[in-house]
C-alpha cells in the first residue's frame, strides 16, 4: 500500500497533509440471529453488525472490517478490528514523520475520525464542540472537510447497493460477507467506471433509515499528553502556515 500517495491525495484535494485515511464505522441492520439473545442488539434498538472502514481521498475503501456485533456500540469497536491489531503491532508500516508545506516542523502521519473514536498519536479527532475557541473550530473544519470522504463513500454504498435498503436476512457471518463484497465492488466500480458510478442522486437523499447508522460517540477515554500535543500542533499549523487562503 502506498501510504504517501494516499497522503498526497488528501493534501492536494483537502489540504489536510500527512493524512493516511478517514476512519468511520456504521451499524448494518440484520435479522435477529438465532440464539443470540441481545448480543447484536445495538443502542438504537435493533440488531446489527458493525462495518468499520478506512477511506482514501478518492472515496475508495482502503481497509474494511465487518462483523463485530452491534452491541459494541461506540468507538471501542475499533479495538476489535484487524486494522487496530496491525496498528498496535506496528505492522501497517506507516511512513516516518515529515514536514508539511510552508513549514520545517515535523508532523506524524495520521488517520482522522469523528467523536466516536479516541484521540491518539496517529489518530486525530475533533475538539469537543462545546468548548472550542476559534482556532480549534478551524481545526475541526479542516478535519471534517477531509473526513467527509468516508461519509460520501458510505452514502454511495447505501444508495447503489439495494442490500443496504433493508435488514439483511442472513446470519451474521453471511451478512458480513455480503457487506464486504459490496465494498469490494464499490472500489472496482470507482476504478473502472468512476464517472458513471459516482453520478448519482445520493447527495440529496434525505429519508431516515436504520441502514448504516453512525456509531455511538464516546468520551470515556483519556488521550495521552503526546496525542493532545500533536492535535494542537496541527491546529496551530492550520491557523498559521497552513491557513486556507
TrEMBL record:
The keyword Transmembrane does not apply. GO terms for molecular function: hydrolase activity; metal ion binding; nuclease activity. It comes from the Eukaryota. GO terms for cellular component: nucleus. It is found in: Nucleus. Residues 23-187 form the DDE Tnp4 domain. Keywords: Hydrolase, Metal-binding, Nuclease, Nucleus. Its cofactor is a divalent metal cation. PANTHER family: DDE TNP4 DOMAIN-CONTAINING PROTEIN, PTHR22930. Belongs to the HARBI1 family. This is DDE Tnp4 domain-containing protein. It comes from Parnassius mnemosyne.
